[in-house]
Design a protein that fits this description.
The protein is an all-alpha fold. It contains 24 helices and no strands. The longest helix is centred in the N-terminal third of the chain and has 32 residues.
């Protein structure tokens, strides 16, 4: 009898969940995709309908595995109270929107976001991987459609790289092709300009011509592709190619590229959490910060980079724990993961190799005498790879004069000569850089940039910062030893300096005392290294995972709603 009641309850939950997604899809299709009509009166898109169908099928197939944990945690008072309170507030907000807002576009996105937030809160559990999946499938996907086309953080350049790759142009850095359909979309376009791209069917138009093809008053100057390894753009290119093949609109193709980048991010960070022997809580909370989610849901390489580096860190921690049973396959995997990390930011993260030192090398060699030569060879390869790649980058930037023109009067060779001629300048540069970045609260607050999250981004970040410290302190997983703590801190600063060095050489005008262009997103991949070392023995705050993830979801939702409210 009880089993029948339980099954009936689970079935009702399943139906309500699917219904929530269907309602959201219907609202999105009616008011967003058809906000601006085409000549035929309705913006039909086979691409969108197929993706809707695939998504709903996957939800139906996997939902049972999530419902059981959701119901179990819902029985606990904190989650039930939060969920009921959230629903009451959401209903009040929806009534207010219906009475006061005139923008159907904003109102629709706002209501869908509230609905997705309810699903996130309900399905939060103690399973780290599932929580990331739930976040991606609810509030995470909202970021792909809420931020305006061609927003900041060089999205236009990354989008051009992805579309070039979608058409098989792997040499997009040296021989780029222009795609006017995307290149002529202005930065931060308003609602009307955004909506009209759902009514314009995408017609391939790659060309070598880089002149503007539309009204210069409405469209910015063309942008060339970003110069990063093509592997980082594969997910976005796949999404674009699928949408193109299915005859999607310009907006469909653009959003599909964003969506597949987000999916790739979710898969990579979920894999990192699977590999981690401990500290999954703090890692997953960092992965669910609003900024990483937004980057992953945009044309950006940061999401993929965070995933690659996260897997590398996780695998090193795993090997450090299992050092008595090192296998040849594991050493090979370590080298492959390191190679993937090097793709990030044009080799700027090469210093992540320092983290390998958490593995007790001497003990590992003693316990694996039969693999001695392979282990030593692997270590030497890592050292030589770092040295060689650093020299290669310096050669490209200094000898060959490669630099980023957006930084102004940049010249790698002249920049190094400036430091060599007066060594005291090195101290001045480092000191000013530290003061303007790691020792500056405003710099950290850029995790929630005003560009996306409104005027209260600093206050939001302060709360997020306190929350992260709390999560780190109350993490009741395995305590880390002194060696791991020291290596983690050393790796953090090594990567911080390596990324800073690259920007100083390639993006900072010659003679500048300081480093230009260094953003908080560059340390997000290594942020877990400093937070996971905060150990608290005899922790009294155990079994608080559900509450922590609900708070994490609240931060994402607040930032999401701020982003929607900011839309013109």
């Amino acid at each position: 009898m009880l089993e029948k009641i339980e099954n009936k309850k689970n079935m009702i939950i399943k139906i309500l969940t699917i219904a929530s997604y269907i309602v959201s899809i219907f609202m999105y299709e009616l008011f967003i995709c058809n906000g601006v009509k085409n000549d035929d009166g309705f913006n039909f898109s086979l691409c969108r309908y197929i993706m809707y169908g695939i998504f709903l099928v996957l939800v139906i197939f996997f939902l049972d595995k999530y419902i059981l944990e959701a119901v179990k945690t819902f029985e606990k008072k904190p989650k039930k109270v939060v969920f009921i309170g959230y629903c009451i507030i959401s209903i009040m907000l929806i009534i207010y929107i219906a009475l006061r807002w005139t923008s159907m576009y904003k109102a629709t996105l706002f209501i869908i976001a509230l609905l997705m937030g309810a699903l996130f809160i309900f399905y939060v559990s103690t399973n780290f991987v599932k929580n990331v999946t739930v976040a991606i499938c609810t509030v995470g996907m909202m970021f792909t459609v809420t931020t305006s086309f061609q927003h900041g953080l060089d999205e236009k350049k990354h989008a051009m790289s992805a579309i070039n790759l979608a058409y098989g142009n792997f040499d997009y850095a040296k021989n780029p092709l222009n795609e006017p359909a995307f290149n002529n979309i202005i930065f931060n376009c308003n609602v009307t300009q955004y909506s009209k791209f759902f009514a314009e069917k995408y017609e391939p138009g790659l060309t070598e011509d880089w002149g503007n093809t539309k009204d210069e008053k409405l469209y910015y100057i063309s942008s060339s592709p970003a110069d990063y390894n093509f592997i980082l753009y594969i997910p976005s290119a796949i999404g674009m190619k699928i949408a193109i093949t299915l005859g999607g609109s310009i907006a469909d193709v653009y959003i599909m590229g964003r969506l597949f980048n987000l999916i790739a991010y979710g898969i990579l960070v979920a894999l990192a959490l699977k590999i981690l022997p401990s500290k999954q809580k703090i890692f997953s909370i960092i992965y669910l910060l609003p900024m990483p989610l937004l980057l992953a849901a945009s044309y950006s390489i940061d999401g993929i980079c965070i995933g690659f580096i996260g897997i590398f860190i996780a695998y090193c921690l795993r090997l450090a724990k299992d050092y008595t049973q090192i296998k040849l396959k594991q050493m090979f995997i370590l080298l492959v993961l390191f190679a993937l990390c090097l793709l990030a930011k044009n080799l700027a993260y090469f210093a992540i190799a320092v983290f390998v030192l958490i593995i007790p090398i001497i003990k590992t060699l003693k316990n694996n005498k039969d693999k001695l030569s392979v282990i030593i060879a692997t270590i030497l390869v890592l050292v030589m790879a770092c040295a060689g790649l650093l020299l290669y980058k310096l050669n490209s930037s200094v000898i060959n004069g490669e630099a980023d023109a957006r930084g102004g009067d940049t010249d790698g060779k002249a920049q190094l000569e400036f430091l060599i001629e007066n060594p005291t300048n090195i101290v001045k540069v480092v000191f000013k850089h530290l003061m303007s970045s790691l020792l500056n609260f405003d710099w950290y607050a850029e995790l929630n940039q005003q560009e996306f999250f409104g005027i209260y981004y600093k206050q939001i970040f302060l709360l997020e910062f306190i929350f992260l410290i709390y999560v780190a302190i109350t993490d009741d997983s395995e305590q880390l030893n002194t060696r791991t703590k020291l290596v983690s801190v050393l790796t953090f600063f090594a990567v911080y300096l390596s990324t800073s060095l690259m920007l100083y050489i390639t993006f900072t005008p010659v003679g500048t005392i300081g480093i230009n262009g260094y953003q908080t997103r560059y340390i997000v991949p290594i942020l877990p290294l400093v937070l996971m070392i905060i150990n608290r023995k005899d922790n009294k705050y155990k079994n608080n995972d559900v509450i922590i993830y609900m708070i994490s979801g609240m931060f994402i939702l607040i930032d999401l709603l701020c982003a929607i409210y900011k839309i013109a």
